[in-house]
Amino acid sequence: MTSLETLLKEGTKVLEQQKIQEAGLDAWLLLEYVTGVSRAFYFAHSDDVIEEEKAEEYRNLIQKRAEHIPLQHITHQAYFMGFEFYVNENVLVPRQDTETLVEKALELLKGKKAPEILDMCTGSGCILLSLLALMQDACGVGADISPQALLVAEKNARNLEVDKRARLVESDLFSSPFFEEKTGKDQAWYDILISNPPYIRSADIEELMEEVRDHDPRLALDGHEDGLYFYRKIVSEGKVFLKKDGWMLFEIGYDQGQDVSELMVENGFQDVKVIKDLTGLDRVVLGRR
Ligand code: GLN
């Protein structure tokens, strides 16, 4: 017979022993996930006994978290821009940092009728799909090299009921027929090209925390030798897909503001700017075609 409180303490202890950063919080979130019990209910009923089956399920999940599997991969839930996204091992877990990028896009698109969006390297779809959910007349394309990631994005598009306005395309950057048909014709389709591409220098990947290094897809992290591979490609090849005065905007690593701005200026973008996130670090670079 195990009470909620005993189980939570047990879970916290296991996670602490394995040096999980927010052991207490994660132990709680898994308890909430397994039992459906709210924080308020817990405080009033922490002595309630939990069915042995549920307790076992909880212990199994704690064990997974103890192996540094990210919490979101265990619960398959991640929250971004106030929406719930399904995630698994084939996509990068949506980061709060990336909300800065989405908020900037919303600002740039304010007042624009039926904006068209291209999200390159869409992953779980979190960027494109939250924009579509927040702008009811917008539509857009999310492209990704990984068919497994696109399955996740499709599921999220249905869950957020924006699937009719989202087209998800398998493409290694702009190389798929979907884009090739348009290249060169200067058929500029998009009001905004937004991207959070892989941007970690290959040599820095080993330094990342275990959750990210071993459980987020490498494909979603690795920005090749100098971390700038995808910015270079997207800036130079993506420009023709933007309408005149359309915006390109990227999430960047904290030390990439200058390099990515220079790339944009060299490619003829105007009003190039670096924007900081809530913690004061450079996080977004944008420019106008
Ligand atoms: N665009 C997705 C996100 O922001 C995936 C990014 C990536 O895979 N690098 O979560």
Structural class comes to alpha/beta
What is the tally of helical segments? 12
Radius of gyration: 21 Å
Ligands (ions, cofactors included): glutamine
Outline: elongated
Q: How many strands in all? A: 11
Oligomeric grouping of the chains: single chain
Helix content: 40-55%
Fold blueprint:
Layout: E1 2-3, H1 4-17, H2 23-35, H3 39-45, E2 49-50, H4 52-66, H5 71-75, E3 77-80, E4 83-86, H6 99-109, E5 116-120, H7 126-134, E6 139-144, H8 147-159, E7 166-170, H9 177-180, E8 190-195, H10 210-215, H11 229-238, E9 242-251, H12 257-266, E10 270-276, E11 282-288
Parallel strand pairs: 5-6, 5-8, 6-7, 8-9
Antiparallel strand pairs: 1-2, 3-4, 9-11, 10-11
Glutamine binds at residues 92, 94, 98, 121-124, 126-127, 196-198, 220.
Give a description of the structure:
This protein is an alpha/beta fold. It has helices at 4-17, 23-35, 39-45, 52-66, 71-75, 99-109, 126-134, 147-159, 177-180, 210-215, 229-238, 257-266; strands at 2-3, 49-50, 77-80, 83-86, 116-120, 139-144, 166-170, 190-195, 242-251, 270-276, 282-288. The strands form three sheets. It has a seven-stranded mixed sheet, with helices on both faces. It starts with a strand and ends with a strand. Glutamine binds next to helix 7.
